[in-house]
Amino acid sequence: MLSVFQRRDMYDSVVVDREQDVVLTTGQLYGLQVRRELERSFKPVIPFAPHLFGSGKTRFVKSYLELVKSMSERALIGPENISDCEKDRRRSFLDKLHEAVLLYVDLTELKPTNPIEEKRNLEWAVHYLLFKSACLKSGQGQPDPDECFKVFKLRTDVLIKKIREVLSMRTDQFLLVAFDEVGVLDESYGDFDFETTQDGKVFPYNDLFGIIRGLCLEDNVFFIVVGKSEGLNIHNNAISVSRVELTFIPLSPLEKDSIIEHLEKSSSFMFTGSPKVSQILCHQHFSTSELAELLLELTGGVPGLLVKAINYLLHCKLSQDHLLLSKESFWMIMNDSIATNYCVDPLLPRLSSLSETRQRLLKMLTLLALYHIRFELGELVHLSSTFDVFLFDLVTDMCFYRRLIVDENHQERYEVLIPKLLIGYIEQSVNNDRLEWLLLQTLKSQPVEFFYESKCRVFEGLVATMFYLHFCYHPTDSLMFSILGQLSSVWKEMNLKFSSESTAYYMKSIHYTRSTSEVERDTFDINDWKKIVEEMLEFEKIYIPFEPTSRSPDILFKLHGRTSGQNLIVGIACKGRWSLNGIRWNEIVDEACKFLQPVHDQVVTVHPTLHCLLIIMSTKLSTSVATDLNHSSHCYSFGDRVAGVFTIPLNCELIILSESDVENFIGKDILSSLRSAFKSTDNPHSRSIGISTVQEMVLSLSQNI
């Protein structure tokens, strides 16, 4: 039954949330027309989408003209201040674009053709494929290559004229050519005679874009190029060698609201009356919003993965009419290997055979994804002393995805997205790498809101991971654990060895008032500490509240006593201080008031065997704090006064770690790089942090296993 299902889609998927991509693409096509009208020696501009499977490349180019029509003037005339004359020119261009004919060209059909003297000529093969695509589109059948060569003889004007005749187009009518699957050129080295550089290298993409540049000289012809490829590398070569300007189409993953729109607008012809997908899969006890959130959690909003997941759910509904989806049944269905294999099938060969080099880079990319570290377009990763690769291209090569972020200063940066649907397959490829397993499992448990909030929390993440590794692998020879044991007699009595490998978990945040949102992950109230300690926090697991503004420490965990019945609830306040000003006494008191006091009042008073410890881990202490503590770590116990204003409650302790102890725990060089990165922003990009620092984090974490 699955094999029948795989041969076709179960519904007509509607393209949503591509307004930004339409505006960018239309602007580039208009720019080409303007340049063409101004001078004949212009540099063509071509929209380019070098993305991985599932990014929505093919669906976008095939539906582009329809999307332009649906957006009307917004596709080219935005809020910017332009003259009435320019607006009229743009309206005229849009009117002609609405009448344009799309010629879709699948480059997987690109092959050497018969004419002997031109058999390995790429230009002739492209020209023939263009004409063949036009003939097949018009229903005329496949043309004879020999006859075509006699007529065209590599003349672009003759080729375009013949294409117009076949498609019954006027000479002033726009022809939009969409080249898809451009990545096949990576596998065509033996098929064509490419131009060779002085050092004997060939660059097939330079040849292709040189051919497209020649075609752009013809009036009223436009191009979009898409397909998995080393996009940035091609982009830079095309500018310098092919004299073509490529502009990236972002095609970012969809967010929840867009997934809801997709579910509500797409119809399934497999069901009587072609109802909307939301009507088929949802019901009064399972809303479209809930389904959209689950699909976002599973697929990361990647359109291709999303469509496949919906197809599979519709297949299940069609074969089991009584099926009523819920959160539990959704995960039961989609965690099945048949479902996951179907959804990621195009990526399986790549995911299951990671080379040693790519495995080394995997941890770095996972850290970028886990901590939401943004990177710039031209950022390089040094693979060896003689070989660098663009991070932009590396993300695609590793079967991951990118999300474009435009900040308030209109600076464009990217984040790495690793959909949870892929994590299990990546784990199988690195089953002996415990650190990668930990990072991937932590990423898998991370709420999807984390990604779309895009708050960089590298310091908290590092501290949580380091503590976890110490608990699992080095509890007896951990310098940090030794320091905590010297300061706290309760810590010293705890069992510091985790009995099994686990991961960091993300929990609801704690706020003044409970959220009224319908989303299941609402927040805890500040009076819910008894519930948190008794029901939420499990032993031998580390938790991170998923909002950075939580009224709680940044890290929470619960420890067993070794021999006695005592247990310990631990909170770690990670106070990243990256400027000259260190943490002050009033901030320390605030952390104690929002954790030690309510936990004592709500929990410790009814559980006399439970103790509570707050650890202040700050990258920098204020001068007054450091001086008062004599530049050493210090523990405040029951009855001690902190800054003269807060008294430590019964069975509670407060430890303030010195800067030197924090530095030894995290690493001097890592902290130095983080200090440089965070001095002006809460969300540093990787160039601020430094790829070398991210790799150093990987090395530091690896040494703890």
UniProtKB/TrEMBL annotation:
Entry protein name: Archaeal ATPase
Source organism of the structure: Galdieria partita
Lineage of the species this protein comes from: Eukaryota, Rhodophyta, Bangiophyceae, Galdieriales, Galdieriaceae
